[in-house]
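Thread amino acids onto this structure.
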């Protein structure tokens, strides 16, 4: 083979350029990467494409073959080997970066319930009467009593294990920090409740001590809270004062109802604490902590946001210096703003200026300074509230704000603890119903705080023990003139974020509060109320931020967002108690609605594997021709059986009632048995069903997502299977959990429906159907033709009587059988849809297609069989084909 010098030169230059130019080398790598992305190509095809990208001549000869030159051939082979090595390395990198997914292959029999229980005998453990009674007999051993004491008094568990070196310093620092801004907040919450600020300080002291002993949460800061101790207590006080004719503004009860002239405002507030403590304690004793599970997060968020708006409204009078009346009941919140705008000319500009300065300083330190400090590593908040209070007291004392500028001040504050006194229970009949929402909200806040930080720090918070602890805390504190108390979310977050480990933080906090009451309380008598109102308004900023949660709920679920908005508007328009009832009722109705109408899906197979997923969710999921797989994701009970049947009809496309009406309309009037498997009824059924080519032959109900089923649900499944069997559609169950199987067994489901038709998984049912279809020469194909195979031609849809008629051809796996039909002695009849309603061990379920087999069945002379045979025989005689089948029934 020869080549001229010019071509040889050009070829050598081509090789040289390719081996020296860096851009061309990059082109080689790019081409190799493109080739490696196609994992289906074999090595030969990859080499050919690589040679084309290199513009190398082919090795097969021809005009473009390699010249017969040792030098050129050596360079050519060297270049090719280098490129091949690059290709192999890139393949290895591709394999290492994209490892194949693990796979498995399992070969096992198809299991239905009866076959599975026969091979793997289930455990049937039945407790004896003694074992059942022993559950209710208390253990009185010494160990059991020690355990009960530690459960009821949790401090006996964590205090002996307290690590002084690791925890004490952090707890002391956090306790002092919390006390620095709890003092002004507690005094402000007392103002919301229309009582002296000293009672707010009492509430910051006594409840925390008792909760430290009985509480299970290590990070809950229990004390006065704006919603409970302020808003809800204040609203209840206003309502009770109106009922008893007590002057709330002047705390004068001289004009009160007879027998209540000795009642003061603080007596009503203390009685609220006693009543909610009794409610919560009784709930805890009867282990009713699960009730909190029915209070959804969107309901609580909507209530807290609307409560924050109520609290801010109560502070308008102090922020602006406008004296406003107290309103309760329907439209109380709008009435306050209407009166405020009517009296806006009475605004005290000095109070407004002081409020603006205080709010600006608080927000600046909270949004700017604290963030800078946290970036430096200090997690504790700055005690700016304490500095604001000290500055307000000094300015008020120096400038004599009350006399010169008519600024409302706190007034005299006692510097001592009151002696214990019994609450006045004669107020109970006026307050018991009004305290129910107060008890519910206080428990919700306490439990939610405990569960949040318990999950974060991996310790258990007992909901029932929290009820007992909160109930005893409020009962105990009511003897010391305290307001209603619960866990505070802002203070608890500071306690956890600042590094507090245990409830020692609350003890340090109580010590600081005690010092303030005994030493510093008299110095705060000149504190302007607008300063306290500014502290409260800034503390509500985090609650107002919950407005954003509405939009997040709206994006997730419109129904959940509607509960948020209903609760919010209910509290704003109808007051907090009716708003809570409305929101809670709607939340329960939504829960019932969702449980009554759970999700349903039509399932399909992914690439014909054993994975079945909703067709609407996955593009590659495909249905099998003639098979519908229906999944119901929820409980099946009396409340949603109609929804279950409606969704089954929609998903399967089978309207049994309509098909039966068509069959009844086409059946001769002289036939008394329109659904018997006589020749006439079969022909009629064929005509009706062939008009509906999209009807399935099999329906599989996936029960794997059923959480519960009652007797009404079991009855519904029986009727569905029976009704579909009448129109030659086989309904099977699959994936029933163990408790569902137990319920079916207890409800005698398997006495009417064979357990052979309840499979362990969807794939078991599909595999069985495929096997049956292959046995009679009717394999299942992908649903693409839209043509229904006549049910009458499939042996699985025929009963004994239709097999005995010598009309119509029957397809089997050995070809086409023409009349007259002569069954083989070894041929067995697969189960018909109707046969699943019989006993699986009965000869009728799968009889031999021989004369002896039929004689054996009818020779039993059972009343049910004789009645069935008599009815079918009457239908055949009535159709005029009696003499054609007489030879098949002689015995």
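Threaded sequence (891 positions):
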């Amino acid at each position: 083979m020869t080549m001229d010098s010019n071509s040889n030169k050009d070829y050598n230059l081509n090789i040289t350029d390719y081996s020296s130019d860096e851009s061309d080398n990059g082109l080689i790598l790019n081409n190799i990467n493109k080739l490696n992305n196609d994992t289906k190509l074999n090595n030969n095809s990859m080499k050919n494409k690589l040679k084309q990208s290199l513009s190398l001549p082919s090795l097969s000869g021809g005009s473009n073959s390699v010249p017969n030159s040792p030098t050129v051939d050596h360079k050519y082979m060297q270049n090719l080997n280098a490129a091949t090595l690059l290709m192999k390395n890139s393949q290895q990198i591709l394999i290492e970066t994209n490892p194949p997914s693990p796979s498995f292959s399992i070969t096992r029999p198809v299991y239905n319930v009866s076959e599975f229980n026969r091979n793997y005998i289930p455990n049937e453990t039945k407790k004896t009467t003694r074992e059942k009674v022993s559950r209710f007999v208390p253990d009185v051993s010494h160990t059991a009593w020690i355990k009960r004491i530690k459960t009821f008094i949790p401090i006996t568990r964590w205090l002996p294990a307290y690590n002084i070196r690791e925890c004490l310093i952090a707890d002391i620092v956090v306790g002092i920090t919390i006390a620095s801004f709890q003092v002004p907040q507690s005094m402000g919450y007392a103002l919301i409740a229309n009582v002296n600020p000293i009672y707010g300080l009492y509430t910051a002291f006594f409840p925390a001590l008792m909760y430290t002993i009985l509480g299970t949460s290590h990070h809950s800061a229990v004390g006065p809270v704006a919603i409970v101790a302020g808003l809800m207590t204040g609203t209840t006080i206003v309502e009770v004062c109106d009922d008893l004719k007590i002057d709330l503004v002047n705390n004068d009860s001289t004009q009160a109802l007879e027998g209540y002239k000795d009642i003061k405002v603080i007596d009503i507030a203390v009685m609220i604490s006693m009543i909610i403590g009794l409610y919560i304690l009784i709930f805890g004793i009867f282990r009713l902590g699960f009730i909190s599970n029915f209070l959804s997060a969107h309901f609580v968020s909507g209530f807290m946001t609307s409560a924050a708006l109520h609290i801010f409204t109560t502070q308008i009078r102090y922020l602006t210096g406008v004296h406003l009346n107290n309103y309760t009941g329907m439209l109380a919140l709008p009435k306050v703003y209407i009166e405020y705008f009517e009296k806006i000319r009475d605004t005290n500009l000095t109070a407004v200026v002081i409020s603006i300065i205080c709010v600006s300083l608080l927000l600046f330190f909270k949004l700017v300074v604290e963030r800078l400090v946290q970036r430096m590593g200090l997690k504790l908040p700055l005690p700016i509230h304490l500095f604001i209070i000290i500055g307000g007291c000094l300015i008020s004392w120096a400038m004599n704000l009350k006399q010169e500028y008519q600024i409302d001040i706190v007034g005299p504050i006692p510097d001592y603890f009151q002696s214990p006194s019994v609450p006045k229970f004669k107020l109970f009949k006026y307050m018991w119903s009004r305290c129910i929402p107060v008890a519910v909200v206080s428990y919700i806040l306490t439990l939610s705080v405990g569960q949040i930080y318990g999950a974060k720090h991996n310790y258990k918070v007992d909901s029932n023990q929290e009820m007992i602890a909160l109930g005893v805390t409020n009962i105990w504190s009511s003897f010391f003139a305290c307001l209603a108390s619960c866990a505070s979310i802002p203070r608890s977050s500071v306690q956890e974020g600042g590094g507090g480990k245990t409830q020692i933080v609350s003890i340090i906090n109580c010590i600081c509060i005690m010092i303030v009451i005994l030493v510093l309380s008299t110095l705060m008598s000149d504190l302007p109320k607008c300063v306290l109102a500014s502290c409260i308004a800034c503390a509500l900023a985090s609650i107002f931020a919950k407005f954003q949660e509405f939009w997040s709920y709206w994006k997730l679920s419109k129904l959940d967002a509607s509960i948020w908005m209903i609760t919010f508007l209910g509290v704003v328009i109808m007051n907090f108690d009716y708003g809570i009832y409305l929101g809670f009722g709607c939340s329960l109705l939504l829960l019932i609605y969702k449980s009554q109408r759970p999700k349903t899906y039509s399932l399909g197979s992914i690439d014909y594997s054993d994975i079945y997923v909703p067709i609407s969710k996955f593009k590659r999921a495909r249905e099998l021709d003639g098979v519908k797989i229906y999944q119901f994701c929820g409980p099946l009970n009396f409340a949603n059986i109609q929804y279950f049947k409606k969704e089954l009809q929609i998903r399967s496309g089978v309207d049994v009632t309509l098909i039966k009406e068509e069959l009844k309309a086409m059946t001769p009037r002289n036939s008394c048995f329109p659904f018997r498997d006589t020749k006439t009824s079969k022909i009629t059924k064929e005509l009706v069903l062939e008009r509906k080519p999209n009807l399935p032959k099999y329906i599989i109900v996936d029960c794997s997502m059923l959480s519960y089923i009652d007797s009404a649900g079991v009855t519904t499944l029986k009727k569905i299977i029976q009704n579909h069997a009448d129109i030659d559609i086989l309904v099977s169950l699959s994936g029933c959990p163990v408790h569902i199987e137990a319920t079916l067994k207890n409800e005698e489901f398997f006495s009417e429906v064979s357990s052979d038709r309840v499979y362990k998984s969807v794939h078991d049912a599909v595999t069985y159907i495929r096997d049956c279809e292959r046995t009679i020469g009717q394999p299942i194909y992908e649903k693409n033709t839209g043509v229904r195979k006549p049910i009458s031609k499939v042996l699985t849809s025929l009963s004994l009587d239709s097999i005995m008629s010598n009309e119509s051809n029957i397809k089997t796996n050995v070809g086409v059988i023409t009349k007259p039909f002569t069954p083989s002695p070894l041929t067995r009849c697969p189960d018909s849809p109707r046969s699943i309603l019989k006993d699986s061990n009965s000869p009728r379920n799968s009889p031999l297609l021989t004369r002896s087999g039929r004689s054996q069945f009818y020779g039993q002379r059972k009343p049910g069989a004789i009645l069935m045979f008599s009815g079918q025989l009457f239908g055949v005689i009535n159709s005029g084909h009696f003499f054609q089948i007489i030879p098949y029934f002689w015995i």
